[in-house]
UniProtKB/TrEMBL annotation:
<feature type="repeat" description="TPR">
    <location>
        <begin position="250"/>
        <end position="283"/>
    </location>
</feature>
<keyword id="KW-0808">Transferase</keyword>
<feature type="repeat" description="TPR">
    <location>
        <begin position="148"/>
        <end position="181"/>
    </location>
</feature>
<protein>
    <submittedName>
        <fullName>UDP-N-acetylglucosamine--peptide N-acetylglucosaminyltransferase 110 kDa subunit-like</fullName>
    </submittedName>
</protein>
<dbReference type="GO" id="GO:0097363">
    <property type="term" value="F:protein O-acetylglucosaminyltransferase activity"/>
</dbReference>
<feature type="repeat" description="TPR">
    <location>
        <begin position="80"/>
        <end position="113"/>
    </location>
</feature>
<keyword id="KW-0328">Glycosyltransferase</keyword>
<dbReference type="InterPro" id="IPR019734">
    <property type="entry name" value="TPR_rpt"/>
</dbReference>
<dbReference type="Pfam" id="PF13414">
    <property type="entry name" value="TPR_11"/>
</dbReference>
<dbReference type="Pfam" id="PF00515">
    <property type="entry name" value="TPR_1"/>
</dbReference>
<feature type="repeat" description="TPR">
    <location>
        <begin position="216"/>
        <end position="249"/>
    </location>
</feature>
<keyword id="KW-0802">TPR repeat</keyword>
<dbReference type="InterPro" id="IPR037919">
    <property type="entry name" value="OGT"/>
</dbReference>
<feature type="repeat" description="TPR">
    <location>
        <begin position="114"/>
        <end position="147"/>
    </location>
</feature>
<dbReference type="GO" id="GO:0006493">
    <property type="term" value="P:protein O-linked glycosylation"/>
</dbReference>
<feature type="repeat" description="TPR">
    <location>
        <begin position="284"/>
        <end position="317"/>
    </location>
</feature>
<dbReference type="InterPro" id="IPR011990">
    <property type="entry name" value="TPR-like_helical_dom_sf"/>
</dbReference>
Protein backbone atom coordinates (compact mmCIF):
# COMPACT_ATOMS: atom_id res chain seq x y z
CA UNK A 1 0.00 0.00 0.00
CA UNK A 2 1.43 3.40 -1.01
CA UNK A 3 1.09 6.39 1.27
CA UNK A 4 0.90 9.89 -0.12
CA UNK A 5 3.16 12.59 1.22
CA UNK A 6 1.04 15.16 3.13
CA UNK A 7 1.88 18.08 0.86
CA UNK A 8 0.78 20.66 3.42
CA UNK A 9 3.85 19.81 5.50
CA UNK A 10 6.54 20.05 2.80
CA UNK A 11 8.30 23.15 1.54
CA UNK A 12 7.52 24.97 -1.72
CA UNK A 13 10.83 23.81 -3.25
CA UNK A 14 10.22 20.18 -2.24
CA UNK A 15 6.69 20.27 -3.64
CA UNK A 16 8.02 21.72 -6.92
CA UNK A 17 10.60 18.93 -7.07
CA UNK A 18 7.89 16.33 -6.38
CA UNK A 19 5.67 17.75 -9.17
CA UNK A 20 8.58 17.62 -11.63
CA UNK A 21 9.32 14.04 -10.68
CA UNK A 22 5.65 13.08 -11.11
CA UNK A 23 5.59 14.77 -14.53
CA UNK A 24 8.72 12.90 -15.64
CA UNK A 25 7.26 9.54 -14.57
CA UNK A 26 3.94 10.21 -16.33
CA UNK A 27 1.88 10.72 -13.15
CA UNK A 28 0.14 13.74 -14.66
CA UNK A 29 -2.86 13.85 -12.28
CA UNK A 30 -0.71 14.25 -9.18
CA UNK A 31 1.73 16.52 -11.00
CA UNK A 32 -1.15 18.83 -11.95
CA UNK A 33 -2.63 18.75 -8.43
CA UNK A 34 0.68 19.70 -6.86
CA UNK A 35 1.40 22.35 -9.49
CA UNK A 36 -1.98 23.96 -8.83
CA UNK A 37 -1.05 24.15 -5.12
CA UNK A 38 2.23 25.82 -6.09
CA UNK A 39 0.49 28.19 -8.50
CA UNK A 40 -2.01 29.28 -5.85
CA UNK A 41 0.91 30.09 -3.54
CA UNK A 42 2.88 31.93 -6.24
CA UNK A 43 0.84 32.82 -9.38
CA UNK A 44 3.85 34.57 -10.98
CA UNK A 45 6.22 31.57 -10.90
CA UNK A 46 7.01 30.91 -14.56
CA UNK A 47 8.59 27.49 -13.88
CA UNK A 48 5.26 26.30 -12.45
CA UNK A 49 3.33 27.87 -15.35
CA UNK A 50 5.60 26.09 -17.84
CA UNK A 51 5.15 22.77 -16.05
CA UNK A 52 1.36 23.19 -16.04
CA UNK A 53 1.51 23.99 -19.75
CA UNK A 54 3.55 20.81 -20.37
CA UNK A 55 1.29 18.62 -18.20
CA UNK A 56 -1.84 19.76 -20.05
CA UNK A 57 -0.11 19.23 -23.41
CA UNK A 58 0.73 15.63 -22.46
CA UNK A 59 -2.93 15.14 -21.44
CA UNK A 60 -4.04 16.60 -24.83
CA UNK A 61 -5.77 19.52 -23.07
CA UNK A 62 -4.48 21.94 -25.69
CA UNK A 63 -6.52 24.99 -24.67
CA UNK A 64 -5.31 24.74 -21.07
CA UNK A 65 -1.74 24.17 -22.24
CA UNK A 66 -1.88 27.32 -24.39
CA UNK A 67 -3.48 29.25 -21.51
CA UNK A 68 -0.62 28.51 -19.11
CA UNK A 69 2.00 29.24 -21.78
CA UNK A 70 0.37 32.64 -22.35
CA UNK A 71 0.35 33.32 -18.60
CA UNK A 72 4.07 32.51 -18.50
CA UNK A 73 4.73 34.87 -21.44
CA UNK A 74 2.73 37.58 -19.68
CA UNK A 75 5.02 37.19 -16.65
CA UNK A 76 8.18 37.03 -18.79
CA UNK A 77 7.89 38.02 -22.49
CA UNK A 78 11.46 36.74 -23.07
CA UNK A 79 10.75 33.17 -21.88
CA UNK A 80 11.77 31.01 -24.84
CA UNK A 81 10.36 27.77 -23.39
CA UNK A 82 6.85 29.25 -23.19
CA UNK A 83 6.89 30.14 -26.90
CA UNK A 84 8.12 26.64 -27.71
CA UNK A 85 5.29 25.10 -25.64
CA UNK A 86 2.83 27.34 -27.46
CA UNK A 87 4.34 26.19 -30.75
CA UNK A 88 3.68 22.58 -29.72
CA UNK A 89 -0.01 23.37 -29.24
CA UNK A 90 -0.27 25.05 -32.66
CA UNK A 91 1.57 22.16 -34.32
CA UNK A 92 -0.76 19.63 -32.69
CA UNK A 93 -3.73 21.62 -34.02
CA UNK A 94 -2.25 21.61 -37.52
CA UNK A 95 -1.63 25.39 -37.46
CA UNK A 96 1.89 25.06 -38.82
CA UNK A 97 2.56 28.73 -39.61
CA UNK A 98 1.70 29.79 -36.06
CA UNK A 99 3.79 26.89 -34.72
CA UNK A 100 6.78 27.93 -36.83
CA UNK A 101 6.48 31.58 -35.73
CA UNK A 102 6.56 30.54 -32.07
CA UNK A 103 9.46 28.10 -32.47
CA UNK A 104 11.48 30.68 -34.43
CA UNK A 105 10.79 33.30 -31.79
CA UNK A 106 11.90 30.84 -29.09
CA UNK A 107 15.31 30.19 -30.68
CA UNK A 108 15.78 33.91 -31.39
CA UNK A 109 15.26 34.60 -27.68
CA UNK A 110 17.53 31.72 -26.65
CA UNK A 111 20.02 30.83 -29.42
CA UNK A 112 21.29 27.71 -27.56
CA UNK A 113 17.76 26.30 -27.02
CA UNK A 114 18.23 22.77 -28.34
CA UNK A 115 14.63 21.58 -27.81
CA UNK A 116 13.45 24.68 -29.66
CA UNK A 117 15.53 23.76 -32.73
CA UNK A 118 14.33 20.14 -32.59
CA UNK A 119 10.68 21.27 -32.40
CA UNK A 120 11.30 23.77 -35.20
CA UNK A 121 12.84 21.04 -37.38
CA UNK A 122 9.85 18.71 -36.86
CA UNK A 123 7.41 21.50 -37.77
CA UNK A 124 9.44 22.40 -40.87
CA UNK A 125 9.34 18.74 -41.98
CA UNK A 126 5.55 18.78 -41.47
CA UNK A 127 5.43 21.97 -43.58
CA UNK A 128 7.59 20.21 -46.23
CA UNK A 129 10.41 22.76 -45.87
CA UNK A 130 13.17 20.16 -45.76
CA UNK A 131 16.17 22.44 -46.33
CA UNK A 132 15.24 24.69 -43.40
CA UNK A 133 14.60 21.58 -41.29
CA UNK A 134 18.16 20.41 -42.05
CA UNK A 135 19.46 23.78 -40.85
CA UNK A 136 17.44 23.56 -37.62
CA UNK A 137 18.88 20.11 -36.83
CA UNK A 138 22.40 21.37 -37.67
CA UNK A 139 21.88 24.28 -35.23
CA UNK A 140 20.85 21.90 -32.43
CA UNK A 141 23.92 19.74 -33.08
CA UNK A 142 26.24 22.75 -33.03
CA UNK A 143 25.25 23.30 -29.39
CA UNK A 144 25.45 19.59 -28.49
CA UNK A 145 27.24 17.35 -31.02
CA UNK A 146 26.56 14.23 -28.89
CA UNK A 147 22.79 14.14 -29.49
CA UNK A 148 22.86 10.86 -31.40
CA UNK A 149 19.05 10.67 -31.84
CA UNK A 150 19.02 14.14 -33.42
CA UNK A 151 22.00 13.18 -35.58
CA UNK A 152 20.06 10.11 -36.76
CA UNK A 153 16.93 12.21 -37.46
CA UNK A 154 19.07 14.57 -39.54
CA UNK A 155 20.38 11.52 -41.40
CA UNK A 156 16.80 10.40 -42.13
CA UNK A 157 16.01 13.83 -43.55
CA UNK A 158 19.14 13.85 -45.73
CA UNK A 159 18.33 10.30 -46.88
CA UNK A 160 14.82 11.42 -47.89
CA UNK A 161 16.43 14.29 -49.85
CA UNK A 162 18.66 11.80 -51.69
CA UNK A 163 21.82 13.15 -50.02
CA UNK A 164 22.99 9.65 -49.18
CA UNK A 165 26.65 10.32 -48.39
CA UNK A 166 25.71 13.09 -45.95
CA UNK A 167 23.09 10.79 -44.40
CA UNK A 168 25.70 8.05 -44.07
CA UNK A 169 28.05 10.47 -42.28
CA UNK A 170 25.26 11.31 -39.80
CA UNK A 171 24.51 7.67 -39.01
CA UNK A 172 28.23 6.87 -38.63
CA UNK A 173 28.64 9.79 -36.23
CA UNK A 174 25.56 8.65 -34.26
CA UNK A 175 27.06 5.14 -33.98
CA UNK A 176 30.43 6.59 -32.96
CA UNK A 177 28.66 8.49 -30.16
CA UNK A 178 26.43 5.55 -29.16
CA UNK A 179 27.70 2.22 -30.59
CA UNK A 180 24.64 0.27 -29.40
CA UNK A 181 22.12 2.60 -31.12
CA UNK A 182 20.34 0.01 -33.25
CA UNK A 183 18.24 2.54 -35.20
CA UNK A 184 21.34 4.15 -36.72
CA UNK A 185 22.72 0.73 -37.74
CA UNK A 186 19.44 -0.06 -39.52
CA UNK A 187 19.27 3.37 -41.17
CA UNK A 188 22.85 2.97 -42.36
CA UNK A 189 21.83 -0.40 -43.82
CA UNK A 190 19.08 1.37 -45.79
CA UNK A 191 21.64 3.80 -47.25
CA UNK A 192 23.99 0.99 -48.26
CA UNK A 193 21.04 -0.84 -49.83
CA UNK A 194 20.06 2.28 -51.80
CA UNK A 195 23.68 2.54 -53.00
CA UNK A 196 23.66 -1.10 -54.15
CA UNK A 197 26.04 -2.23 -51.38
CA UNK A 198 24.01 -5.35 -50.58
CA UNK A 199 26.50 -7.13 -48.31
CA UNK A 200 27.15 -4.01 -46.27
CA UNK A 201 23.38 -3.49 -45.98
CA UNK A 202 22.91 -7.07 -44.74
CA UNK A 203 25.73 -6.65 -42.22
CA UNK A 204 24.22 -3.45 -40.79
CA UNK A 205 20.68 -4.86 -40.55
CA UNK A 206 22.06 -7.95 -38.80
CA UNK A 207 23.96 -5.72 -36.38
CA UNK A 208 20.75 -3.75 -35.69
CA UNK A 209 18.75 -6.88 -34.77
CA UNK A 210 21.64 -8.24 -32.71
CA UNK A 211 21.56 -5.01 -30.68
CA UNK A 212 17.75 -4.95 -30.46
CA UNK A 213 16.13 -8.39 -30.94
CA UNK A 214 12.66 -6.74 -31.00
CA UNK A 215 13.46 -4.28 -33.82
CA UNK A 216 10.65 -5.04 -36.26
CA UNK A 217 11.66 -2.65 -39.07
CA UNK A 218 15.23 -3.96 -39.08
CA UNK A 219 14.00 -7.55 -39.51
CA UNK A 220 11.76 -6.42 -42.38
CA UNK A 221 14.64 -4.49 -43.99
CA UNK A 222 16.90 -7.52 -43.55
CA UNK A 223 14.30 -9.83 -45.09
CA UNK A 224 13.78 -7.49 -48.04
CA UNK A 225 17.47 -7.17 -48.89
CA UNK A 226 18.02 -10.93 -48.52
CA UNK A 227 15.01 -11.52 -50.80
CA UNK A 228 16.48 -9.17 -53.42
CA UNK A 229 19.84 -10.96 -53.08
CA UNK A 230 17.97 -14.28 -53.57
CA UNK A 231 19.28 -15.63 -50.25
CA UNK A 232 15.88 -17.15 -49.65
CA UNK A 233 16.40 -19.31 -46.56
CA UNK A 234 17.77 -16.37 -44.57
CA UNK A 235 15.04 -14.08 -45.94
CA UNK A 236 12.40 -16.53 -44.67
CA UNK A 237 14.07 -16.58 -41.23
CA UNK A 238 14.07 -12.75 -41.08
CA UNK A 239 10.42 -12.46 -42.13
CA UNK A 240 9.34 -15.16 -39.65
CA UNK A 241 11.15 -13.27 -36.88
CA UNK A 242 9.30 -10.10 -37.95
CA UNK A 243 5.97 -11.97 -37.87
CA UNK A 244 6.83 -13.29 -34.43
CA UNK A 245 6.97 -9.64 -33.33
CA UNK A 246 3.97 -8.49 -35.42
CA UNK A 247 1.80 -11.48 -36.47
CA UNK A 248 -0.74 -9.39 -38.43
CA UNK A 249 1.72 -7.47 -40.63
CA UNK A 250 0.17 -7.96 -44.08
CA UNK A 251 3.15 -6.69 -46.10
CA UNK A 252 5.52 -9.11 -44.36
CA UNK A 253 3.13 -12.00 -45.10
CA UNK A 254 3.09 -10.83 -48.74
CA UNK A 255 6.88 -10.66 -48.95
CA UNK A 256 7.28 -14.03 -47.23
CA UNK A 257 4.85 -15.54 -49.74
CA UNK A 258 7.00 -14.16 -52.60
CA UNK A 259 10.02 -15.97 -51.16
CA UNK A 260 8.07 -19.23 -50.82
CA UNK A 261 7.00 -18.82 -54.46
CA UNK A 262 10.63 -18.33 -55.55
CA UNK A 263 11.59 -21.45 -53.57
CA UNK A 264 8.96 -23.44 -55.47
CA UNK A 265 6.81 -23.87 -52.35
CA UNK A 266 3.67 -22.92 -54.27
CA UNK A 267 1.04 -24.24 -51.82
CA UNK A 268 2.74 -22.46 -48.94
CA UNK A 269 2.98 -19.29 -51.06
CA UNK A 270 -0.77 -19.47 -51.85
CA UNK A 271 -1.70 -19.88 -48.17
CA UNK A 272 0.58 -17.00 -47.18
CA UNK A 273 -0.75 -14.65 -49.91
CA UNK A 274 -4.29 -15.47 -48.74
CA UNK A 275 -3.28 -14.57 -45.18
CA UNK A 276 -1.84 -11.24 -46.40
CA UNK A 277 -5.10 -10.46 -48.23
CA UNK A 278 -7.19 -11.48 -45.23
CA UNK A 279 -5.22 -8.98 -43.14
CA UNK A 280 -5.26 -6.23 -45.79
CA UNK A 281 -8.03 -6.69 -48.38
CA UNK A 282 -6.87 -3.60 -50.32
CA UNK A 283 -3.58 -5.20 -51.44
CA UNK A 284 -3.36 -5.40 -55.26
CA UNK A 285 0.21 -6.79 -55.31
CA UNK A 286 -0.85 -9.72 -53.12
CA UNK A 287 -3.83 -10.48 -55.39
CA UNK A 288 -1.60 -10.37 -58.47
CA UNK A 289 1.07 -12.56 -56.87
CA UNK A 290 -1.59 -14.98 -55.62
CA UNK A 291 -2.93 -15.15 -59.17
CA UNK A 292 0.56 -16.04 -60.47
CA UNK A 293 0.80 -18.86 -57.92
CA UNK A 294 -2.71 -20.15 -58.74
CA UNK A 295 -1.88 -20.09 -62.46
CA UNK A 296 1.23 -22.15 -61.68
CA UNK A 297 -1.07 -24.75 -60.08
CA UNK A 298 -3.34 -24.74 -63.16
CA UNK A 299 -6.19 -22.93 -61.35
CA UNK A 300 -6.72 -20.52 -64.25
CA UNK A 301 -10.21 -19.21 -63.46
CA UNK A 302 -9.26 -18.48 -59.83
CA UNK A 303 -6.13 -16.75 -61.12
CA UNK A 304 -8.17 -14.56 -63.51
CA UNK A 305 -10.48 -13.61 -60.67
CA UNK A 306 -7.47 -12.50 -58.59
CA UNK A 307 -5.97 -10.49 -61.48
CA UNK A 308 -9.34 -8.75 -61.94
CA UNK A 309 -9.54 -7.96 -58.22
CA UNK A 310 -6.03 -6.46 -58.38
CA UNK A 311 -7.16 -4.28 -61.31
CA UNK A 312 -10.31 -3.17 -59.47
CA UNK A 313 -8.11 -2.07 -56.58
CA UNK A 314 -5.50 -0.51 -58.89
CA UNK A 315 -6.70 -0.06 -62.52
CA UNK A 316 -3.14 0.58 -63.75
CA UNK A 317 -1.62 -2.51 -62.09
CA UNK A 318 0.86 -3.43 -64.86
CA UNK A 319 1.55 -7.05 -63.87
CA UNK A 320 -2.15 -7.86 -63.72
CA UNK A 321 -2.82 -6.16 -67.08
CA UNK A 322 0.02 -8.12 -68.69
CA UNK A 323 -1.15 -11.44 -67.27
CA UNK A 324 -4.77 -10.90 -68.32
CA UNK A 325 -3.63 -9.88 -71.80
Amino acid sequence: MTTQVPTSTISYASLAELAHREYQTGDYDNAERHCMQLWRQDPANTAVLLLLSSIHFQCRKLDKSAHFSMLAIKQNPLLAEAYSNLGNVYKERGQLQEALENYRHAVRLKPDFIDGYINLAAALVAANDMEQAVQAYVSALQYNPDLYCVRSDLGNLLKALGRLDEAKACYLKAIETRPDFAVAWSNLGCVFNAQGEIWLAIHHFEKAVALDPNFLDAYINLGNVLKEARIFDRAVAAYLRALNLSPNHAVVHGNLACVYYEQGLIDLAIDTYRRAIELQPNFPDAYCNLANALKEKGQVSDAEECYNTALQLCPTHADSLNNLA
